[in-house]
Amino acid sequence: MSDVPGINEAVLWAIILCPLVAFGAIAVYLRKLPKIAGYTSILAIGASFALALVTLVDVLGAGGHVATHTHEWFQAGPLELNLGVRVDGLTAVMLVVVTSVALLVQVYSQGYLEHDPGYGRYYAYMSLFITAMLGLVLADNLFMLFIFWELVGLSSYLLIGFWFHKPSAAAAAKKAFIITRIGDLGLLAAILLIWTQGGTLAIDEIHELALTGALSATTLTLFGLGLFAGAAGKSAQFPLHVWLPDAMEGPTPVSALIHAATMVAAGVYLMARFFPVLDAAPDARETVAWIGAATVAVGALLALVQTDLKRVLAYSTISQLGYMMLALGVFGYAVAIFHLFTHAFFKALLFLGSGSVNHATNTFDMRRMGGLRTVMPITFWTFVIGTLSLAGVFPLAGFWSKDEILLEAWHQDRALYAIAAVASFLTALYMFRAVFLTFFGEYKGGEPAGPGDEDVHFHGDPARPHESKWVTTAPLVVLSAGAIAAGWWAWGKQFHEFVEAAVPAEALHHAPDFSYGIAISSSLIALAGIATAWAIYHRRLVEAAQIHRTAYPLAVLLERKFFLDDLYERAIATHAFQHGWNRLVQAFDTTAIDGAVNGMGRAGAHSSRVLRHVQTGQVQLYGAGIAAGVFVVAIIIFITNPL
Amino acid sequence: MQLTVLVFLPAAAGLLVLLLPARHARHARWVALLGSLAALALALVLFFQFENGGGFQFVDRASWIDTGAFEIEYFLAVDGLSLPLVALTACLTVVAVLVSFSIEHRQRAYFASLMVLATAVLGVFTAMDFLLFFLFWELELFPMYLLISIWGSGRREYSAMKFVLYTVAGSAFMLVAILALAFSAGTFDMAVLGQSNIESAVLPLRWVFLFLFLGFAVKLPIVPLHTWLPDAHSDAPTAVSVMLAGVLLKMGGYAIIRTCVTILPAQANDFGIWLTAIGAISVLYGAFVTFRQTDLKRLIAYSSVSHMGLVLLGIGVLGTTAMVGAAYQMLAHGLITGMLFVVVGIMYERTHTREIGRLGGLARQMPLIATALVFAGFASVGLPALAGFIAEVTVFLGAFQKHEWAVLMAIFGVVLSAGYILWTLQRVVFGPVRQEWDGVSDQRYWWEHASVAGLAVLVILLGVYPDFLMDMLDPAIGVVSARVAT
Amino acid sequence: MEGAGVVIAFWALALVTLGAAGGVMVSRNLLHAVLFLIIAFVGVAGFFVLLSAEFIAMAQIIIYVGAIAVLMLFAIVLTPRTMRDNSETAMVGPAILLGVALAAVFLFVIHDTGWGVREPGWVAVTSVTSEPGLAAADLGRALLSTWVLPFEIASVLLTAALVGAIMLVRPDAEESGDDA
Amino acid sequence: MSELDIVGPQIAILLAAGAVLVWDALLPKQRAALPWLALAGVAGAAIWTTTWVVRGDFQTAFDGTFALDQFAVFFQYVFAGITAIVIIASIDWVEREGRRQSEYYALVLTASAGLMFLAGARDLITIFLALELSSIPQYILAGWGKNQRSSEAGIKYLLLGAIASALLLYGMALLYGFSGSTLLTGIAAAIGENGAENRSLLIVATVLLIAGFGFKMAVVPFQMWVPDVYQGAPTPVAAFLSVGSKAAAFAVVMRLFFEGLGEEFLSNDWAMIFAVIAAVSMTLGNVLAIAQRDIKRMLGYSSIAQAGNFMIGLAAISIAGEHFVLGASGVLLFVAAYAFTNLGAFIAVIGISQHIGSDRIADYAGMWRRAPFLALALAFCLVSLAGIPPTAGFWAKLYVFNAGIRADLVWLVIVAVLNSVVSAYYYLAVVRQMFLGEARGEARLPVSPTVGLALGVATLGVIVFGIVPTPLVEAAREAAAIFATG
Amino acid sequence: MTLTLEHFLTVGALLFCLGLVIALSKRNAVGMLMGIELMLNAVNLTLIAFSRSGVSAEPIAGHAFVAFVITVAAAEAAVALALAVAVYRNRQTVEVDQLDLLKL
Questions:
Q1: I want to staple A349 with a disulfide (CB 3.0 to 4.6 A). Which of A479, B162, B472, D1 is the partner?
Q2: Chain D interface includes A196 (CB < 8 A)
């Protein structure tokens, strides 16, 4: 285990433990005292953030080199499982992203969930999530990674279902957990495979195996695909993306942190972690690339037709995650992480912005908004910044990262490039559609505060929207700074080198240099998208309804989300599985198996009732029985054992 | 001597309970609690005195019946495999007593039976003379029968009789096999049997193995010998469900490892793949049927079928890792399902219904119970850092090399378990609040807190610090798998 | 066993005995049945004589004819006429079938077995005295030496049977009497 | 004189019988003393037997027609025990019945003397006479009751018994004709000499013997009288029949078949027949018992099934070699255990029925409330009959099954164990009625001291031998050992 | 022609079976009893034939046997008739096929 001086193991563990302690504290005795709960959690995450920065500095000092600290957890027979932390450039970046965004979101939540009865619970869950996420990032072996991977899923479940009394929320939580769990099937299978074939679960040993070719190509491919199945579940890749839009049932900060910035990126992180495997298994890599591309397209298309602000953002997240996967699929290891990095900031920003809007209007339905530009300027401007960044407009963060992805794609496969380019046009289009619908035009009154749900965090009057308090806006501002600047810092490759130090050099392909062609073209594409949005949704040169009519089938296809939900939930889960197969099995269980058992009992009793009528009480009959017995027995002997 | 005390302590307490004068019937529960606590304490003492890898320890043996034809001994001992189960039994006995604190009807008889049940199970886990083992195995029938048929609900007498007949039918074959073995090896001593190589018996060893297996499979239970379980569970009182799911099912798995595999390694090798297959099928089958259940207890019962299938799967692999995993799964499932039944029992006391359809939104009226249910639910889904996960993963990792197909089936079963558990939680705990449950009180009495919290702590402990059990199981199982390997 | 007389006697006795038995079977009136029965007993006694077991024959006459048959007669006569019907039950068919079947089996084994007869021809039976060996005296000696135990048992048995029989037939009325 | 000494026990009993009659004649007012007088005789017999055990020089007498050996001694003890318990249990009933009490006791004593003679008889004539000496008093006793059912039972029993003994006699005659001797030894010698070529005759003779004794043992197809007679006869008498003549029949069959017809070529045949009869008896008896509503009838059918279990032992005996002792001792053990158990059951029935005036199982509902002692004892006996540990019945079954397995009769043992499942069902059904059923009428039943005493003794035997069966097992083995040497 | 043992045995067997048929078919208790007595007689005949045939090493045994059988038969008959009377007193009939209180 290469140990780099300056990186202190205790610090790494502490990063994980701080939020855990917060979680424990809140869970055990702070449920009654929400305020303190909030502060405890923020304090803990602040500590983690600080430590993460320390680590970052250390790692930078060490030139992004790897440090691992492993301890045996338990062993059964030949099986030996370890717990350990590993830090390198990749980890460091993730740590910073996670902790910083988390910190901001936690602060933001102070305002957002102020009046929510579940306030304490919220912070407990959040702390748990952050613990899990940090553990996932720091894990030095696949098994430990899997553990935290699952815990992340759990906290996601709890947070999506935070408002559990809303059936939609409960259903969404279940859906999210189960669909990601289906992906985890693959991940678990991959773990089993690598353990049985390679005999190890440690990350760098797996790198070794991948690069030295100790494993057969099939094994590697299967392993890679297994990993990707897990990643696809978490990172909402097509066709497992269906849970993410529903996950918007959770509180907005949750969406910002978990379902935009961090957790959904975990899949990308996983694939990046095992980039050497992809590198050594072309088929797997191709698959990743194409699934990524498909996700990009699907996400972008579906985002077009959403009327719910958060869902627009959700689909855009899906699309962006698709970009990251695509990047990995075209050898753009560093680029993917780069995009993950930038995306974290502007997507969190956008979500928090939408939350702020929701606070003002008590709705996410864009058809009931409009004209908020004037009443909530801070929200507006920060939101626009985020949008521009996402659309990839020079010189914001999104521009740099997306640009590089297009570049990699161009060099790898023109088809992929085409998809990505078109999608970036769509990106600009749907994002500005949202902007125009939300902030321009005249206000449409929002959603009257219904008495129905008792724990609305809403306060104030939707009829007269107003700007949010500083706890809400401050994070927006900070994040917009990130959304602007995050890209520059990476400009001039040190980010790449830093991150790339995390994987063996053999696995890396030197990224092609910056190309003005690509850069300019992509900017133009973005601007075109913006212009289109402006034309349709602001200038109303073309009626949206008009488009809807002309492209009716397509519109329906999009509005029904390619019928995927219908397929999964109705056709498969409900009809084929529950009412079909399960009912069949259960019928078999009750009639055939249990029926046989009870039948035996009945048969016994019945034959008894019948047989006892032989006993007529007739003494002659009894005597005949005796005599017949003699005859029969004698004959039996003579037959079985002839003379 | 310690083991004898440990095994018969509960029974003694039970006797004491019976001797209580009628006017002190209220205090029966206290006597029972003290008895079970004492047993637990003693079990823990042994647990920490135990020397890992030291083979059979705390031996109590004396010649009991010596008929020139065969000798039957009073022979108790524990090894790394049985001691954890003994400890588990002691724990769950305490829990069972605690959750029975609200019993009003014929208390003395109730607690006496409960204590006798504990003694019987402890005896099964500690007996090292095959016939003594069989005796304890049968002894467990009486208290179970009474507990279900007197303090049960629904079609309790039907269920009780079904349980008894199933077990007796199984143990009938078991007895034949035991006699055949003892005859061919000339002893009932399981320790000796476990080392001697038996070439032949009066009936083909294949049959001996199958007969033994049949007897244990009923208890485990495997598909298709499982239909007694849902009935017994749904009609039994909470404490009995806890004991049934928690320890009685484990008798089957324990016995298969201790006798089938250890005594007849060759046959085990022949049949291993079949055990694995049956296990995998049970996992899936149980899961499928679970989806259709509308009664909480039946649902848990069928999920137990699914989870115990994993035990058999692991055993069938015959490798150390897989069998350790199986053993671990027994312990984990004991705690988790025990906890599930405790929670459901408390809910039932409040709402007087187990119909999932009638429940809903309880997270609002009874947050603590709801939390406990969610916790236990996720534990049984196999969430990491909880006991079930360690067991499942160990089984999978141990089994994958030998029978990928079975493991893949089982993994699918795990996903299914996520499905039905979460669906249940969604319908019971979450969703809109129902006015009809507005009155019901949350988890309230100290014994409820104690039992739930205690189990939760154990589940977490087994989930994050498996070593203290693994170190105990590993050597013991290693001996077995070594026997099979050769 | 030589001698036409003996042969004729045998066949005659066989005819009489079995015929009488058949009579018991067919006669509808219990009294007639008893009379046939007595004839059958006598026939058997005749066989005994033929087999030079005179003492047994005598016992046969005395006990069967003299005791048992008479006992039956009393029983019948004491019960009203309605009770003298000697018809068969529905079981008669199966019973006959069984009888034939068993007879077949018995006859088969009787003729299948090679009885180790020691001296070939049998001694012709002319007079009781002319046959040495199996005199009543020997029987008596045997009964009091080898089979003294059965002998004693038999005596006890008779007593017990007597006591029991008396108890059973005694009307309850008397009991209340002697209980007082 | 020594010969009288050898049959001393029987003489003692017969003297007691006489004394009872005389006492009644002389002092009609002191009737209360009669049973104790009779018991004195039984005690005398037991003591006398003991003196023989102490003296230990067992011998045959009366020109070898009678033997006093461990085998006979064992059975003399058993019969003494049976008679004593029956007498004690009868006291109440006899007094209520009011008929001449002296005769009743005298007949019981006579019958038991006959049984004791049977145990030692080694000569066809003696066997026949002893058999009749035990039978005829039983015919009378069966018809002893005043009601119609009783006399009906009596005459049925007698007519069928007479037919059976006629068949038996014909068989004996054939044997005598073949071998020219009535001594078992002589018969054995003749068979050894030229038996093989005359197998057909021997088989028919054997079958006739089986029929004759099978009637007493109450095995299919010679069993049909059993339920009717048990139901009709006075309960104490039924108890006596159910154990006394059955045990005696097995005793004499073991001696006769093993000493007389033990020749290999023959024993294979009758062993096979015994095995078949055993299987059929068990199955038919159990199946028929299920639907019975009258407890005495149920016990009748169960005794048929039990006879089937005895027979496993007989079938196992025939396999020559060192294992047959196991079979023989298995039968003896079973006889003793069954004697206690079944007597216990019947006495409990006496105690209960005489008060509730009904033998319907349905009327036993809730007995646990009304007569705890009786209910508990009855439950114990039924459990023992079902062969569930820890009771004498379990060890008996275990021992016999063990013998069966060692005699390669695995199929038979499997049939037997499955049957024990069925039997468990209907035995436990009664237990369930008594403990869980709703009591009909709350009046507590008085337990007369004598019934209590008899029941206590029987149940105590069941339990004590259930926990420490060793002495009984030892005795059985010594008794069976004579065949090893013989 | 010569008479052999088989002749006597045959008669015995036939008589025995005839008695059996009677015992199994007669409706009247006394009738059944007659059948039984015939069976016993057949047995006696067989025994005497054996003991006379010279098959037997100890012919006397056969005679003794017969003597006892006769005795027992007498006792049995006495008891049987007594029981028949008892039944008659209870039921006003000795037709055993009407004695079917005991069943099921």
A1: A479
A2: no
DSSP annotation string for A89-146: HHHHHHHHHHHHHHHHHHHHHHHHTTT-TTHHHHHHHHHHHHHHHHHHHHBSBHHHHH
- Sequence-distant contacts of A534-539: CB under 8 A, at least 24 apart: A534/A432, A534/A436, A536/A433, A537/A432, A537/A433, A537/A436, A537/A437, A537/A440, A538/A436, A538/A440, A538/A441
Structure token digits, residue C47: 């066989």
Q: Identify which of A63-72, B283-292, D476-485 has the greatest average pLDDT.
A: B283-292
Contact D159 E36 (CB under 8 A): yes
SS3 category, A80: strand
- Which residue bears the tokens 């440690």? A202
Counting every residue, how long is chain E? 104
pLDDT of the residue at D321 = 57
For residue D447, give both structure tokens: 């337990």
Each residue of D296-318: pLDDT tens digit?
889 999 999 999 998 988 888 76
The pLDDT of residue B216 = 93
Query: What's residue A229's pLDDT?
Result: 92
Alpha helices in D407-448 (DSSP H): 410-436
For E97, the closest of A612, A615, A620 (CB atoms) is A620
Q: Which residues pair with D123 in a beta bridge?
A: D183
Residue C101 contacts D, CB cutoff 8 Å: no
What residues of chain D lie within 8 A of the CB of E42, using their CB? 170
Cβ-defined contact of B173 to D410 (cutoff 8 Å): no
Cβ of residue D143 closer than 8 Å to a chain E Cβ? yes
The two structure tokens encoding residue B158: 């039907």
- A574, amino acid identity: T
Q: Are A629 and D221 in contact (CB < 8 Å)?
A: yes
Cis peptide upstream of residue A239 (ω within 30 degrees of 0): yes
Beta bridge partners of B75: B61
Task: Write out the H or E segment, with its range, that includes residue A205.
Answer: helix A203-212
Mean pLDDT over the full length of chain B: 89
Point out the residue among C59, C117, C139 whose CB comes nearest to the CB of E5. C117
Residue in A152, A181, A193, A246 to test binding to B, most B beta-carbons within 10 Å: A181
Residues of C in Cβ contact (< 8 Å) with E89: 171
Answer yes or no: do C55 and E63 touch at CB < 8 A. Answer: yes
Q: Which amino acid is at E98?
A: Q
Determine the distance in angstroms separating the CA of A611 from the nearest CA of chain D, rounded to an integer: 7
At B463, the amino acid letter reads: G
Say if the Cβ atoms of D110 and C160 lie within 8 Å: yes
- Closest Cα to residue A626, out of B461, E89, D225, B184? D225
Of D99, D126, D197, nearest to C149 by CB-CB distance is D126
CB pairs under 8 A between A and B: 135
Cβ-defined contact of B69 to D417 (cutoff 8 Å): no
Burial A500-512 (b: 16+ CB within 10 A, else e): bbbbbeebbeebe
Residue A577, chain D, CB below 8 Å: the answer is no
Calpha distance B37→B94 (Å, rounded): 6
pLDDT (0 to 100) of residue E103: 58
Cβ neighbours for A301, distance < 8 A, ≥ 6 positions apart: A426, A558
Summarize the confidence of residues D167-195 as an average pLDDT: 89
Q: Which chain C residue has its CA at the smallest distance from D108's CA? A: C160
Would the CB atoms of C91 and A621 count as touching at under 8 Å?
Answer: yes
Distance from the A24 Cα atom to the nearest Cα atom in chain B, whole angstroms? 13
Mean pLDDT of the region B339-365: 86
Instruction: Give per-residue burial for A469-499: e unless 16+ CB within 10 Å, then b.
Output: eeebbbbbebbbebbbebbeebeeeebbebb
Is it the case that residue A537 has pLDDT exceeding 90?
A: no
